[in-house]
Fold each of these.
Amino acid sequence: RGPSSLTCLPTGKWSDMIPACERIYCPDIMELLPDTRLRVEPGNYEAGASYKFSCPVNYELIGPSSADCLAGGQWSLGSLLPQCEAITCPGPGPPRHGSVHPGAAGPGQTQYRVGDIVKFHCDTGYMMSGSPVAACTHTRAWSRPAPRCLTACTYPGTAHGGMVDKVKFYY
């Protein structure tokens, strides 16, 4: 606070009062961040201080990963604020001659969160080859590929005057 320079006058006195340095603070950063899931590494609000941002498991950070308190008492964030966005997987397509049923989600869902499970079914007359379930993972991919629905043979019946030995149905 005070002038940035002083001049020694012919009277032997200084031209102004002696300046004093004051600490510069930025506003409380938590009041600027609307996303309550955002994790902020503790710090202080003095000029030169820096904060780092992160998100909980199964969320990703969108926007800046840190903010600095600038000499003018403002944060370096600008208009782009950090936020946490859920990691999602696109909806898996149904197998040919089959369908996919969301677990806890509703029909027609196009995005699934990490941990969501879908179940696959084959149409009547088809049998499944592969896993009947898959889960959305943190890599934005499904834990297993969609199964295939293969044409199923129907029971051939008993031949006239004969018998069928060891009928095995695979599903």
Amino acid sequence: HTVRGLLIATMATGVSFLKNSLDAGDTRAAMAVCEKLAAKITIHGKNPGAQSLNLKVKSKGLPLNTGITDFFTANSGITTSFIIPMLGLRNNTDTAVTLRCGQQMMKRSLQPLIKALNELGMQVQDLHGNGSCPLSISGCLQGGSAHIDSPNSQYLSALLMTLPLALKDTE
């Protein structure tokens, strides 16, 4: 739940506190991406005897304000899946960004999510033609109508988290 909390806090305006956040690779990958999306994240101590952190996230909210054009999500499947539609909520969606990931994630197909986001107004293209990272991402998350065959809950959750923020209603 830590990654979801970081991403939601990045889309929100103001300051969010995440207590007992898991200190893991997925968390660190999400923190790096959120910071590239202009969130300011500070660690307010580790919890003794536990692999958890207390985090403070300060963000100006939407649209996400970034001039960064290269994002890396390591091997974090959840960060990769959730960040793709969030990149359609940037202030400069006409500028393409590249989303790269680690070798393990490059083996996982993102094709159902890519297809749905293209139907929803974004332009998401897999650069190697294999349905996975690296991706070129541009265009605004418009909303509208889409169909997704989701092999896991992450794709659907990523859409459910971002589509209420799209320009149009979605079905």
Amino acid sequence: PNIWQRICIRISRFGRPCPLLFTEGYMSLTRCLRSTRRNTIILTELKCITSTNVIPFSKKETSIMADSVAQYINRHFNQKITLDELAKVFFCSKSALMHTFKKAYGTSVLNYLMDRRLQEVKMWLKISNMPINLIAQENGFSSLPYFYKYFAANDGMTPLEYRNQAQEKIK
């Protein structure tokens, strides 16, 4: 059984899944939780399964999902994040995730992730004297050649030139 089926079985009083949960999604889950005495245990298990409080299934919840994805990326940008992983975390398909996010933010999930990483790298280049390769690795760039290429394409200069320019402005 998939994760939803396991959650349904846990919620059900007789070991059978709640039929509403499969059709109505998150809102049905909250109704099922109100009707059971074990809701604290189930909520704890749900919190372990996912880092978001919203599991979207209706059109109303799609913008909430996009915001939740953005929050997840903002918290985990320095780790390896794949579309497959995000789809599992948010209980949806990759295509639904990409479409919803693009509609809400006007950019793809991966571009948002790379821009977030780049934003953090720029901050570190301004305030520290850490080696550039270490800053890149600490912020989720696993390939240094790709990092230098991506940085130059977005800012028109190398990370070292950016650091020198930023430190001159501070002086």
